[in-house]
């Protein structure tokens, strides 16, 4: 990657991906992050992530997408989402939607929050083969629930973007 001599890359920093965990319930064949149930949240703790968001706000970042791994497995996700919103940063959470913890449902319905997911196949067997777990029915149910609860759910059919999915 080359950095423009003018430093405009900093001025243009409006979007950030925050990869807050390497842990995931699934073992997708296409996961370039190699996320797995045995994965960890890594060495960056909650205070570090909060500092990142504070600095992002100072730099004018307008949108953050939380990724992983599966970001809903990170115990600090709700606090990070709320901090971003308080900093006037829009949030998108990229989740496999296998399971949505009850503590996060109200967070996902806050103004400024979008929920994104992927749906590997309408064929349950194919979907489960891709994800390495029995996940199709759970994901589909949560896609439907999220869609019913919010106008800002963003399901996508097909393999997830390589961004950890
Ligand atoms: S691709 Fe996404 S859902 Fe699949 S194992 Fe990786 S992080 Fe989990």
Structure notes:
A 5-stranded parallel β-sheet has the order 1-2-3-4-5. The chain is globular, with a radius of gyration of 16 Å. It has a single domain (11-157), classed as Alpha-Beta Barrel (TIM Barrel). The model is unreliable at 1-5 and 159-164 (pLDDT under 50). The chain is 34% helix and 13% strand. Helix 2 (46-58) links the parallel strand 1 (15-19) and strand 2. The protein is of the alpha/beta class. It has helices at 8-11, 46-58, 77-86, 102-108, 124-131, 136-149, and strands at 15-19, 63-67, 90-94, 113-116, 153-154. The structure holds iron/sulfur cluster. Residues 24, 26-28, 31, 33, 35, 68-70, 96, 131, 160, 164-165 line the site of iron/sulfur cluster (SF4).
Strand content: 5-15%
What composes the largest sheet? 5 strands, parallel
Quaternary structure of the protein:
single chain
Number of strands: 5
In round numbers, the mean pLDDT is: 87
CATH-defined fold name: TIM Barrel
CATH superfamily: Aldolase class I
Domains (count): 1
- Name of the CATH architecture: Alpha-Beta Barrel
- Distance N to C terminus: 23 Å
Give the distinct bound molecules.
Answer: iron/sulfur cluster
Strand order within the widest sheet?
1-2-3-4-5
Q: Tell me the Rg in angstroms.
A: 16 Å
SSE order, one letter for each helix or strand: HEHEHEHEHHE
Shape: globular
Percent in helix: 25-40%
